[in-house]
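User: Show me an example of a complex going from sequences to structure tokens.

Assistant: Sure. Here are the input components:
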Amino acid sequence: MAGFGAIGFLAPWLLLGLLALPLLWWLLRAVPPAPIRRLFPAVVLLIGLKDPETTPDKTPWWLLLLRILALGLLIVGFAGPVLNPTQTQLATGPVMIVNDASWATAADWARRQAKTADLLAEAGRLGRPTVVIQLTAPLVAADAPEFRNAADWIGELEGFEPAPWEPDYTPYTDWVNRQNQSFDTIWLSDGLDHSGRDALVAAFKNKGKLRVIETGNSPVALGPPQLNDGKIVMTALRALGGTEQTVRIDAFGPDPSGIERLLASFDANFGLNDLTAGVEFDLPAELRNRLKRFSIAGIRSAGATSLADDALKRRKVALFAGGRPREGQELITPLHYLRKALAPSAELIEAPVRESLLADPDVVILADIAKLNQFEAENLTKWVEAGGLLVRFAGPRLAAESLTKTEDDALLPVRLRAGGRNVGGAMSWGAPKQLRPFPEGSPFFGLTIPADVAVTSQVVAQPDPFLADRTIASLQDGTPLVTRKQLGDGQVILFHVTANAEWSNLPLSGLFVEMLERLAVSTRTTAPTKAELAGQIWQPQEVMNGFGDLRKGDDLQGIEGERLAEAIVSSDLLPGIYGNGERQVAINVLTPDRRLAPAAWPNSVTVETMAAVAEQPLKAVLLAVALVLMMLDVLATLWLSGRLWGPRGGVVTTGLLAAMIVLGAPPESHAQDELALRATHETVLAYIITGDSKVDATSEAGLFGLSATLSQRTAIEPDDPIAINLETDELAFFPIIYWPITDSQPIPSDAVYQKLNTYLQSGGMILFDTRDANLGGLGSTSSGRRLQQLAAPLDIPALEPVPLDHVLTRSFYLLQDFPGRHSRSDVWVEAAPKDAVKIDGMPFRNLNDGVSPVVIGGNDWASAWAINRDGQPLYPVGRGYAGDRQREIAFRFGVNLVMYALTGNYKSDQVHVPALLERLGQ
Amino acid sequence: MLHHKAREQAALLPPLLAEAHHLAASVVMGTHGRRQVGMGEEFWQFRAAQPGDAWRSIDWRRSGRTDAQFIRQMEWQAAQSVLFWIDDGLSMSFSGDKSRPSKGERAAVLGLASAILLVRAGERVGLIEDADPPKTGDSQIDRMTAQLAARQPDQDYGLPSPQVFPKGSRAVFLSDFLGDWDAISATIAKAADRNVTGALVQILDPVEETFPFDGRTEFQSMTGALRFETLRARGLKAAYLERLASRKAMAQDLCARLGWQYLCQHSGDPAQSALMWLYAALEKVR
């Protein structure tokens, strides 16, 4: 494909046609336009005249220009122009595609994969054997590169993933140097500086041509969270400066129900030439303790994700001490040392027990409290069993209590002997006891014991068989100093000395703080040192892949503490959270002091950037423009020859109008609009779809029959009945709705009930029909019960059976009963007010003005009304003549009901009294 | 086929006839008296009875007023024959604009309307190509309409068929007179020899009158037999108008010499004025 800069042509030889354009211009100019034919009877008068002008009329120059332009665009269009053509380079021989699949590539991984696929496709077209290498994959030294068909690698491309660590070039350099064959290399680099790059470049160049492709985007990464004066400081890093950039750092953590949510979001601003940008996260403690993960919004890579371990957590510690501190003796209260030890790194709660437990502390420390009242004991036990840590310190009161002489106290890890003992005091034998080095299984294992820590008094535990298991620190003579027991999910720990300096100088030493920290009472404020981590196996709890996604790491091998302390991620140390017991350590991709630098390539290597725009074929655009110009040409020619506005001009305008009408799409009509149109065009009777097809068919036929009767006998002429789906259709259009009750009807949702209540309140009427004659009274049959269920949430007033002077008995016909297919059941309507009295001389009482919102019965009226399209009744009613009469009365009831629904209490007016009296024979 | 054609023709009849009737109704007719004594219906004068007059002819009412006897005399209202020639060439079917009737239509309407008026006045009318002598009455009008509708023009320019005119009758020639002038003028001269007087109505389309064309044009006659191509029509306008004026002048000249009337009517102008002129022209001749 030949190209001129940004535009390339698929068939460049067609461009020779452009040479013909000037020739065409001359030709068109020379040839006059075609003559117009006119019918003219007076031509006989013209015969013999000489044409005064010999120069022909010329086509106007702008029309010529238009035509030339259109033709030119056509020619160029057919030559197949392409914007930003890709350069194909013809070459043979094997090619190695090398991928820096580090975390920096994860952000635009899809583009890289697409580019690799393009390169593979190109290699396939040229028939070159190919191999794809990921530089972050561990190298198996003996392997020679497997050059295969490019098509095979395209299939394998899906399986490649970026790794969350950085590539190590040294083993690959040796490996490449060892190969015998020559091959070209295409290197998709991640843009970051890694050591050993020059050697690898030289190795590749030895073997053949080297082509380096970068995306041109500068990777942005996130450093690990640091604590500074109680605030969390996050640092965003980038490799290239030169522009101002703002990135948003999101902090995630689990909410109380365990779902991970976005907790906070802050912006970090890079200045013009800055490569780092710091931001402080100022959050309330509640949120801070829940923080788990930080990531840069919009970038999905392991480098842009940073994990937080419990270094950020400030644990909530509730302190209790017995008695009240006397004035002037604050320094010797047990809590003083605890406060000093815990205050920098934990949140202290000092409140009565009930309030403290409500604040859900992580640790509860009881300093020299012997007896708890029952309420406190119960609550504390429950809290410990739910996973809390209870730390108790001994003291004179605990020593004096003889609580556990005979039985275990739930809140003490061991049974204690009353009294305790003194060593090394004025009145005792022996010197103050030193501490024995901590055994292996103890959480204090590895702590150095200062030489001057000594214990002078302690409480002593009863020798029980499990004492040895529960001891985690002991004195030189083997007596336990700290004991621990598990209680449910939590632990109870007892320090056999006081929390102040009365019985030992342990609280005065740094060992005290470390022991507390080891117990996860407090948290450390700095990164763990090698010494702290050493000697223990850390189990990966969650690990991160190259994209920054976390997954459970329970199935992975544990890591030694020393390896963890190095904190350099690689294939054997994945970034993630590692735990040992209660403590957690987070290993992040970037160490706190890491800075990103752009890749420095030697001058002999040219770096390509991946084209941000793909090829764009322009053929379609140019041809479209040429077409438009030709249409303009047609219009212009017509105009010049006078045909645009003449008698034939009408054709053109109609053509244009027709085109416009065809292109303008007609609006779609919504199904709801159709329903609304049908329902409001004429009065319509409606029924509710129950789901039982037979019942629904009967309803429809019944309402159809009623509509036909109404049309014949009254001024109401309803259209065909409409079926209503309660969930979706609007009810307001229908004056009366027929609702047959079946057992299997679904109970409608709350929204539907709201709709129904609105409908009833705004004047609608629902006719409930249980269809089973209500044998045994309303509510005794299954349909009756269903009706009660369905109607329970509805806003129905009090009901009564229809009194004989209700307007329903006289709203069109005079009726006494309301049969349907059955004739036994009562019909219930809204109860009349208690004070409705019958005035003398009137045949009826003046009942309420409104219309009853519901009419409930069980006479299966739809079956009595049901007729088919020919007018034949569908269901039998009664037998013989009496049945026909019953059907007739059923129709009359229907007419009365619809009249009542549409005209209300019109027939209750005094005006009708004389006529009624006459009809009633009085 | 004939039936179909006849039905086609019949379909044409009503609009033409209706239009002609409409036009005729819009013109108020004067009397068509001859101003001398003769057989007629209108009263002319009373004269004293002479020996030799029939007793029956004495008007006793007038005579009863005096001692003498008087005879009532009527005005001579002899029916005249008027022969119409409506040009049937294809050139008459030209119309310069859709909103205007073609020249032929205008000619037909004018001719029929004046025929209706004449028939009302009791004259005898007929088409020139009709073999039967001119007659009076509504049926004659229908016959004329049918004959007009039954025409099948195939020539560019029509010619009046060589016909022996009744002596002393009148003729009306409705045409655009673009055809062979010599032939037409010969016919007119022959008619004038037999003491026929009449009127020439030249019907032209406004487009033919003004020649508004421009650009490279090929003019052709209605059948396409005559063609003229020009590279620039605007340049021909002057010469064309001159030729048209000379043709009109020839027609006017002939009329002046023979004592006939001449009118140039444009098909864009309303037909009423032409009808009134025609009617007045026919009256003038008497």
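The lines above are the inputs; the final block is the predicted structure for all two components together. The radius of gyration of chain B is 23 Å.
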